[in-house]
Amino acid sequence: MTATLPMTAILLLAAGTYAFRLAGPLLHERLGPADRLTRPLAAATTVLLLALVATSALTENQDFAGWSRPAGVLAAAALALRRAPFPVVVLTAAATTALLRLCGIP
Amino acid sequence: MFAPEVLSFDLTNPALVFILVDMSSFWRTPGRATLRDIALVCVADALVGASFGALAVSGGLPLWVPVAMSLLVFAGGAQFAAIGVALAGGAPLAAVTTGLILNARHLPFGLAVADVLSGPRWARLLGSHLMTDETIAFTLRHEDPARRRATYWLCGTALFVVWNASVALGALAAHAIGDVNALGLDAAFPAVLLALLLPALADRPTRRTALLGALIAVAATPFLPPGAPVLLSLLALVPFLILTRTTRHHDSDDPSAKAPTGTEHRPEEHREHTGQRHDEQDDAHIRTPPEAAP
């Protein structure tokens, strides 16, 4: 296989990513303390993260990822809602998914 | 319990003194439960990191590619996406673009934790690089400024060390690691994030908005390049903004709608959602003015 990813590409991705990361604090400094923005921003962050949860649980390569992974995430979520300790939540997700795959469910 | 002293130092003394005081209470500030949860997220991410290193090398990329990427890019999702494009034979520029679209979410993240990254310039420059989904989610769980700061730095640093070490190990042991998917580790990342998000989702308007956003993102996934659907989820904020604007004028049945900040309204009970318990009394109502912007 002749897969390549030159150093220039990695540096470009790194620089762009760092720019995105630094832009938030810099913008905040320029704009000054904006308490009115705090609540919308916290909501925006939650929206982005839940969208990330949903897409990474349900999809892979722009297609449905199969039932095992979302089932594992759902089982973990149910335990988290019942205030199960964090390790139990994470292990349940992986174990449920692994078990379903062992049974032949993708 | 040390926070009031820290805060008074913060107001009167130069930055260096603040940092020293901050460091001395560093391990106590996040609370034992948060320390434990951070350690567990590190374990989960170590497994994901190892699978990334193994995937890249077994796909035919040289060892330095996953290692350099993890050090310089330090964003799991974008790394997997970029490597995926490269392994599928895509052009390097396509891999870069995909990774950048995925990482654009760090801009609003940075705005949301700007209070944590205020202070000396080196702290902002260094701290920005440590910004990840997990660290942001952990930081959002706290409202006390000292605890937010300690949580961000601790989680960010720990994840940086663990992620890079595990990627290198995974890349070295690429041939020893078998099928990572058989272990169900791909379910660990969304499960970790979801568990971290639950306290924020306790607020009804936020929950509805986030669910709508998730729906938009999943529905858009077949039609948009990777990363773009997550950004599109921000469209869900439009009704949220209109709603919070109207509830500011009319009294609603939801008291949280009037809370001045996004984190202050979280009921105490949700702190224990994932078994988290704080050893110290919460100093939620002591706040410092932002130190930046002289």
Spans of chain A of at least 5 consecutive residues whose pLDDT stays below 50 are none
Q: Using the alpha-carbon principal axes, give the shape of chain B.
A: globular
User: Would you identify the regions of chain B where 5 or more consecutive residues have pLDDT less than 50?
Assistant: 1-21, 250-294
Q: Which geometry of chain A do the CA atoms define?
A: flat
Q: What structural class results from the helix and strand content of chain B?
A: mainly alpha
How many beta-strand segments of chain B? 0
Strand percentage of chain A = under 5%
User: Mean of the pLDDT scores of chain A?
Assistant: 88
Major pleated sheet of chain B: none
Helix count from the secondary structure assignment of chain B = 14
Portion in strands of chain B = under 5%
Give a short account of the largest sheet of chain A: 2 strands, antiparallel
- Determine Rg of chain A (CA atoms, Å): 19 Å
Mean pLDDT across all amino acids of chain B = 76
Descriptors:
heterodimer; A: 106 residues; mainly alpha; 2 domains; two-stranded antiparallel ribbon; flat; B: 294 residues; disordered N terminus; disordered C terminus
